[in-house]
Specification:
Elements (H helix, E strand, L loop, with lengths): L8 H10 L2 H25 L31 E2 H16 L6 H14 L20 E2 L16 H19 L3 H22 L4 E2 L6 E4 H21 L9 H8 L11 E2 L11 H8 L17 H15 L31 H21 L1 E4 L4 H7 L6 E4 L6 H22 L10 E2 L6 E2 L5 H14 L44 E9 L7 E6 L13 E2 L11 E9 L3 E9 L7 E2 L4 E4 L8 E6 L11
Parallel strand pairs: 10-17
Antiparallel strand pairs: 1-2, 3-4, 4-5, 6-7, 8-9, 10-13, 11-12, 11-14, 14-15, 14-16
Helix pairs in contact: 2-13, 2-14, 3-4, 3-5, 3-14, 5-6, 5-7, 6-7, 7-8, 7-9, 9-11, 11-13, 11-14
The protein binds 1-deoxynojirimycin (2 copies).
The site of one 1-deoxynojirimycin has 4 residues, from loops.
Organism: Cadophora malorum
Catalytic activity: Hydrolysis of terminal (1->4)-linked alpha-D-glucose residues successively from non-reducing ends of the chains with release of beta-D-glucose
Keywords: Carbohydrate metabolism, Glycoprotein, Glycosidase, Hydrolase, Polysaccharide degradation, Signal
């Protein structure tokens, strides 16, 4: 710095008035990040059973989404949140935090068991349908409530987490453990992906039934990386042969300017969605070439999409008003969102930063940046004199270095937004208010914490192991919607029960029950599939056939064959009033395997509810 030649009191004066604020800010930001990273890792641990301080009752290895029990009720374990969180834990373990290994071992066991749990998405055997279930109770039992199911990202994400850990085991002389204990779990998940990738499902936000970019991108990585692991372990991967087809399909989300996050659906949205930055950071490969068709962060299409997405949020929230184009803003799921007020999310705002750190790391590792017509607008905001050309890495004053600095500063500015709206105790909720910045929705969201840690690692130059994107099988010239039938076997070596083909019988519950607007009917019963008398786990009925002539509530469900069960209907009241239960206990004998469907025609018997008029 030229100031160093100035001596005497002038130096003191100058360094106060002219010291680069950018450097000071970076130092402050670094110390914030270091503190918040530690808080975040602890926040994650607090939400994992059996010892997590904030989640009493959670089973070993189960990651609870948030301790929040109502508004929103997040005291459940989601396959997606858990897999992404455990991926962070596995990466931290690889970076040297060896004390985290017990969490990974618990997770492996918990997921092996969970794979076999029959649930409203279906059973594990014979065709793996149950693997598409998005969420379970925190003790690993089924969740019966109405939900956006199936969600097909879960098996892919879980496979990725377990593949990363298996690769570590192989490198450390424990191939046998990887092959015999962990591979059977991965194999079930890859079977599911290979069989169902071309079927629609709900997106990661659990709202849209269609084809989701995030899901497909992770599915591709799971199959491609799974094929490599199978080769090292000398086992067969059923389903991995679908990887090139999935890669082909992935290309179809690009519309020439941005990634349309949900396709095969017409929901009136633009398609700009945080989905499309969470996907690229999940498949990030430090060794990738930027023109890889896997949509890496440094890819021109990913960058064009990044700009379009971030720009959509610039005008969406009051707290983003007046922020210039070269500075980060608060980012949410998508601008049309209304869930819990449709606010910005911590995990997506830090994901935006992570995406940019990833991209910079890739350009620096390749020593080159190609700016093309697709990515030009992204760079113009940050480095106005940029042109369409190749920039080679050179000295500290070369345009390459300056562009890298500009993108890094841009990344930091997203973290500064997260910092600005993080409360003093460092706790991270799901959302923050679009007008005031105050934390909102689920408190201590595990995923918010996990996302903070991964962002902090990328900023600090720590990258997960490569998944060899340079060597993947290319997509065919013409896409086709093929499928490989899966092979599903309980992962007993990891602790899964040795379930045999379970059979279930279709039961239709019809009950005539006059209800007021705001009242709902559930069926609750003695068996696991009827929620074992827990009202919170009863099966909701629908009022689609309710008329003035017939107050019909109905549900078509599947119950375990050959069992005698007891059940009652329950009324859910409005305004926080206690539920009202029927006064009779009904008995149903579910027919044995292969038996015919049963329709129950019941009439509500017992006390009725009253609107609380709130
Ligand atoms: C709960 C889901 O978790 C959330 O993502 C969704 O927006 C709401 N349900 C509304 O469908
Ligand atoms: C709602 C989010 O939309 C979904 O992605 C997440 O899995 C659940 N909350 C639980 O955190």
């Amino acid at each position: 710095m030229h100031f160093s030649r100035i001596s005497g009191p002038l130096l003191g004066l100058l360094s106060i008035t002219s010291a680069s604020p950018a450097h000071l800010q970076a130092r402050d930001l670094t110390s914030f990040i270091n503190t918040e990273r530690a808080i975040s890792l602890q926040g994650v641990k607090d939400n994992i059973g059996p010892d997590g301080a904030k989640v009493p009752g959670a089973g070993a290895g189960f990651v609870v989404a948030s301790p929040s029990r109502v508004d929103p009720p997040y005291f459940y374990t989601w396959t997606r949140d858990s897999a992404l969180t455990m991926k962070m834990i596995v990466d931290e373990f690889l970076f040297g935090k060896t004390e985290l290994q017990p969490y990974i071992e618990d997770y492996i066991h918990a997921q092996a068991v969970l794979q076999t749990v029959a649930n409203p998405s279906g059973t594990f055997l014979p065709a793996g349908l149950g693997l598409g279930e998005p969420k379970y109770q925190v003790d690993g039992t089924r969740f019966n409530g109405a939900w956006g199911r199936p969600q097909r990202d879960g098996p892919a994400l879980r496979a990725l987490t377990l593949i990363t850990y298996s690769n570590y085991l192989i490198k450390n002389g424990q191939s046998k453990k990887a092959r015999e204990i962990i591979w059977p779990i991965i194999s079930n998940d890859l079977s599911y992906v290979g069989q169902y990738w071309n079927s629609t499902g709900f997106d990661l936000w659990e709202e849209v039934q269609g084809s989701s970019f995030f899901t497909v991108q992770n599915q591709h990585r799971a199959l491609a990386e799974g094929a490599q692991l199978a080769k090292s372990l000398r086992v067969t991967c059923t389903g991995c042969d679908q990887a090139p087809e999935v890669l082909c399909f992935l290309q179809t989300f690009w519309n020439g300017e941005f990634i349309v996050s949900n396709i095969n659906v017409n929901n009136g949205r633009t398609g700009l969605d945080g989905n499309s930055i969470l996907g690229p950071i999940s498949v990030f490969d430090i060794d990738a070439y930027c023109d890889s068709p896997t949509f890496q962060p440094c890819n021109s299409k990913s960058l064009s999409n990044f700009k379009a997405l971030i720009d959509s949020f610039r005008t969406a929230y009051t707290i983003n008003a007046g922020i210039p184009a070269n500075k980060g803003v608060a980012v949410g799921r998508y601008t049309e969102d209304i869930y819990q007020g449709g606010n910005p999310w911590y995990l997506i705002t830090t994901a935006a930063a992570e995406f940019l750190y990833d991209a910079v790391a890739q350009w620096k590792a390749r020593h080159v940046l190609y700016v093309d017509s697709t990515s030009l607008a992204f760079f113009k905001d940050l480095y106005p004199s940029v042109t369409i050309r190749q920039y080679n890495s050179g000295n500290a004053n070369s345009p390459f270095a300056q562009i890298m600095n500009a993108v890094t500063a841009y990344a930091d500015s997203f973290v500064e937004i997260a910092q600005k709206y993080t409360p003093a105790d460092g706790s991270l909720a799901e959302q923050f208010d679009r007008n005031t910045g105050a934390p909102l929705s689920a408190e201590d969201l595990t995923w918010s914490y996990a996302a903070f840690v991964t962002m902090a690692e990328r900023r600090a130059g720590q990258y997960p192991p490569t998944w060899n994107t340079r060597r993947i099988t290319p997509a065919p010239a013409t896409c086709s919607g093929t499928s490989t039938p899966g092979s599903y076997v309980p992962a007993t070596a990891a602790g899964a029960p040795n379930v045999t083909t379970s059979c279930q019988i279709n039961i239709i519950f019809n009950v005539n029950a006059s209800t007021y607007f705001g009242e709902n009917i559930y069926v609750s019963g003695s068996s696991a599939d009827l929620g074992e008398w827990e009202f919170g786990n009863a099966i909701p009925l629908g009022a689609g056939g309710y008329t003035a002539e017939r107050p019909l509530w109905s549900v078509s469900t599947y119950l375990e064959a050959g069992k005698e069960v007891m059940y009652r209907y329950v009324r859910e009241q409005n305004c926080g009033q206690a539920p009202v239960v029927e006064s009779v206990n009904r008995t149903l004998v579910v027919p044995a395997c292969e038996g015919a469907a049963v329709t129950r025609e019941d009439a509500w018997t017992g006390p009725v509810g009253t609107s609380g008029n709130c």
